[in-house]
Amino acid sequence: MTLQRGILYYQCNVCSEQCSTPMSELARERPSCRVCGSTPRFRSLVSLLSRELWGRSTPIADFPKRLDISGIGLSDWHVLANALSTKFNYKNSFFHQEPRLDITQVPPDMLSRFDFIISSEVFEHVLPPVSRAFVNARRLLKPNGFLVFTVPYRPGDGETVEHYPRMHEYRVIKRGEALVIENVTATGEKESFENPVFHGGPGAALEMRIFTENALRREFLAAGFEDVEVMKDSDYEFGVHWKEAWSRPLIARVAKRR
For the whole model, what pTM was predicted? Predict the structure, then answer.
């Protein structure tokens, strides 16, 4: 890693390409590897995963092949998923296609099967109550397992803001030029909501809630995780950096590091 005239020179830890990006343009969601298109968020997942497994940050190409380590992704980015599948007994999963996994309703045969889970930008979209997703993530993990996790969140100690606390069966419709959410609650009541927020463009993934950092910590601890560590420092060697002090990646561990 070198920094010259405001440009960061680093290695992409997903595909191993040598990259250069102006620091002013290194943003959480902006692709900055010219080969694989990785963002600082995607590279942060690799950084955290390698630190947790090997004790240091390394590119995926340098991971040892360990098929005895089991992992699962929740709608992981396909480039990352393909790379991890060459190193671990790892599979990706999806909500709307095979192989399917609804983190709010995990099958019994998947419990305590995984050494790690990667969940990036998922928990803000699951149906309420979101606590089910945290509990089930814990249930999927082995006794010393961990979750590599990102989600948009605000700084501070406030509570999670649920946009649709009674969301059950919903659809997105168009009224004129506007999108509207129509929901039928679990008790059969109808309700509608204007001005929904989507991630990835209109009609893509509906934002159900906004977390705060401390609300996330409380959710993890209540679900049975013992330790939550937020990635506070940049990993410049692999182009992991963003200016904001919030929405940073974290690791949630079943057991504390000894």
Answer: 0.94
